[in-house]
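worker-3 :: picked FAS1 domain-containing protein
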Amino acid sequence: MKSYRLFSKLLLVSISVGALAMTGCDKDDDDKPVQRNITEIVVNDPQLTLLEAAVVKAGLANTLATTANLTVFAPDDAAFKKVDLNGDGTPDLDTEAKINALDADGVSLLTGVLQYHVLGSKVMAADVPAGPNAAITTLGGKQVFATSNSTGVYINGVKVNKADVMATNGVIHVIDRVLMPPAGNIVQTASANPNFTYLVAAVQRAGSDIVNALTAAGPLTVFAPTNQAFIDAGFPTIASIQAADPNTLKPILLYHVVGARVFSSDLTEGAQPTTAGGGKVTITLSGGPKVKGNGNPSASNIVATDIVTTNGVIHVIDRVLLP
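worker-3 :: tokens ->
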């Protein structure tokens, strides 16, 4: 660890000698002009060691040190420890050693993820509009969605825990989740996730109208039941879904779709958004976010939130919603 951080710091010295100017600062320096660039701030923050390793591995240290007027949403170490970059079910960015060992494909994925955290203009917390979800294009060309409300500032539904960390070339906002760029539309994203095998089968069985609705431009929000949710709802196998009446599946599936981009930060207690099928679902937040269908005796837990797609957002639920 010490040798790695020494290497990183030597690398950054070649980028900017300003890193040395900050050594031995005391609290009186708080009143002095900002002297560190974004890369230097990341290197010197003990809560951003994995971001530092990722930035160096992806070859973005120079970009974040020398490009003017950037905004970086900086995931802390706890955020990196949750990331399953390759989709194999295990964290693969939770140590510096794993980050350093990424192969070329892994580095390509990592670079895209990091670029998704960088805006090409300086956006202070006070600049974020009061919702909902203003679209901002990132360094990698994909959009993130920023919202400001009474509880704070959010990006893709993720709360900014520490805002407006000023750098000589921009600003950093610290967040506790890594933002994953969208890899496809709702159907494509669900198809790539083994937890949604039954859902994808149901969409296909329901027919082209449902497929077309979920691949349209949107924006849409889908409350996506897990495989176990379908099993609990009386579909024990994929074959049972494939044998189901499409006219039975269609209204159920439409009842899981809202015709707007709704992140977890947009959910409010008692809200009743109207679904694509015309009925309403009820949101509750006490004890964790939940959504209840009119025909459900109890609410479904929202077990994972804010999976961003090119045409909306997915929230994972543990029960099938019934109209």
